[in-house]
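Re-run with default settings, no changes from the original entry. Doing this only to confirm the output is reproducible before filing.
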Amino acid sequence: MGNRGKGIGLGAVACLLFSGAVASANECRDDRVLLRGDWGQASFTVEVADDEAERNHGLMFRDTMPKSAGMLFVYPAPSDRIGFWMKNTLIPLDMIFLDETGTVRRVHSNAVPHDESPIMGGPGIMAVLEVNGGMAEIMGIAEGSQMRHPAFDPATAVWPC
């Protein structure tokens, strides 16, 4: 009866390749964040700003950014004093403030380019994701959404790596 029972069939190979692609898409990488909520899931390719010089420069002087890109600002410990302004920033941005578990605590939508008014995250913020203005609303990212990234300690993260 042909090759039945001998080796793996084409359907099984396709299934294995697909499951490998799904696993690959969900693996933790420094250059990508994954977000989830009752709205679904989203992924952004990110630059990580995890030292003072990188955090101070941020996305200033850039006139474009791909829709699926952003910058993740990571701080050494949670703080009540994490804030941003838009001085020298040329594009509108959404600022997604996260606590040490990777839970979204605040979303500030469409920060205005060049505005020097402080945008504060609130209590216990440890990371901030900046994406193109309006993307959080389009995707449904809101308070309570969860982020997955190696910056969050797997022992305390709500969606650990």
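Residues 29-148 form a domain with the Jelly Rolls fold (CATH 2.60.120.1140). The chain has one domain: 29-148.
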